[in-house]
Amino acid sequence: MNARSRRSAVHQARARGFARHWHRARGARRWAPQLLLLLLLLGAIAAPVVSAQGNAATSSSASAQTTHRATRPTPSPAAAAPPQSAYTPCIAQRVDAVTAGVPVYFRDCADTPEMVSFGGGSFKMGDQFGNGLDYEKPVHDVRIAPFALGRYEISIAEWQRCVDAKGCTAASADNEGKPRNHPVVGISWSQAQDYAAWLSRRSGKRYRLPSEAEWEYAARAGNRDQFTWGNWGATVCSYANALDRAGARAHPQMSWYTDCDDGFATTAPVGSFPPNAWGLYDMLGNVWEWVQDCWHSDYSGAPADGAAWIDGGDCSKRVNRGGGWGNNPRALRVSNRDADPQDARSDGMGFRIARTVSEAPPANRPAPLPLPPPPTAATVSAAPSVNEQAGSRNVAAGSAPASEPPSNVVSGPPTQAP
Ligand SMILES: [Ca+2]
Ligand SMILES: [Ca+2]
């Protein structure tokens, strides 16, 4: 056989299969060493192709398949088992609006809290109106990094999902009999940490409580007034769930009510009142909201980067903000602060969740929403009792900060701008 014949034999062998060629080709045994070399060469060429494709080779390279399979490590039974998930994965993702490629209002999962994404910015934190207390001062500049904050207070239904997943303990009896869209109450700061940890496992994102600076930044929504609706506390019933006539009828001992009707004697379903200019509901009123920070008696030395202030101060107490259904407008001022022991629980205290956001563009601030119409008929009651805060919140453990604010109702429009 000359060289041309040998090439033809090789071609035929590749077409028919080397096994048949071995038995049928005349004098094939004389070419055994060359055929063996060719087999090895074909195997060396075919193997990288198989590896790159990540699956079996084509039918023209049975020998290559054999080589690939022989060199692939045999998985151990343990390695072959499916990976154990650290959390129940999201079942869906929903985005309501997108600005500059980043969701503004979004949920990480179909059944996790709706969030508002903030691109970050800067603001002046503290009492800019001039009628605050020492712990609301000094007013200081704070830069806020991108973050996301829940549009609503965490509801009973949202808390229950965490309980069902065994990430949280059952909510207190204060929630019994209420519709599930009311804010969950009787939740301690420590329990809120459990919820954030569960939500992080569930979504794969970093959920947490907001820092106090983040909370005030979002609550102000770009304004410097006492309230998100301006400086007129008597109009509270049109904008927030505070202690109104209905609350006073249900709780006669609470004499510090505002003489208007918001329709809710205790908590209201989340989102019952108009949102602030950045689309957040109930930042002021309904329930007090835990934040991450330790209690400090004023803002001297407070972080300027918007981080939670957890150095120094009294870390056995954690700050809560915004006032609740048992308070008059004085407590609902956007710069007002309070604190309680981290395991304290109250029928007036809940929380909303925050989430760390990375790589959000700086311009991604939610577009302002139109402010609600001005109220029509609301008046102000007589000055409230000095026992307002303790009486309305029914704190179950510990005590309020030593510098508890007096309960002077905001009794009229301001006479001067801040
Ligand atoms: Ca009310
Ligand atoms: Ca609130």
- Provide the CATH architecture of the largest domain: Alpha-Beta Complex
**Quick one: overall form?**
globular
* Bound molecule kinds, no repeats: calcium ion
Strand order of the largest sheet: 1-2-3-6-12-7
Overall mean pLDDT stands at 73
C-alpha Rg (nearest Å): 33 Å
Helices and strands, in order, run as HHHHHEEEEEEHHEHHEEHEEEH
Q: Biggest sheet: strands, sense, closure?
A: 6 strands, antiparallel
Describe this structure in words.
- With 418 residues, the chain is an alpha+beta fold.
- The protein has two domains: 1-69; 94-418, Alpha-Beta Complex (paralog of FGE (formylglycine-generating enzyme)), CATH 3.90.1580.10.
- It contains eleven helices and twelve strands.
- It has helices spanning 3-16, 18-24, 32-53, 62-71, 77-80, 156-164, 189-203, 212-220, 245-250, 329-332, 388-393; strands at 94-99, 102-107, 115-118, 121-125, 140-144, 147-150, 207-208, 288-295, 314-321, 338-341, 349-350, 354-356.
- The chain has a six-stranded antiparallel sheet with strand order 1-2-3-6-12-7. Strands 10-9-8-11 form a four-stranded mixed sheet.
- Strand 2 and strand 3 form a beta hairpin.
- It is globular.
- Mean pLDDT is 73; it is low at 1-32, 38-88 and 359-418.
- The structure holds calcium ion (CA) (2 copies).
- One calcium ion binds next to loops.
Short description:
With 418 residues, this protein is an alpha+beta fold. The chain has helices at 3-16, 18-24, 32-53, 62-71, 77-80, 156-164, 189-203, 212-220, 245-250, 329-332, 388-393, and strands spanning 94-99, 102-107, 115-118, 121-125, 140-144, 147-150, 207-208, 288-295, 314-321, 338-341, 349-350, 354-356.
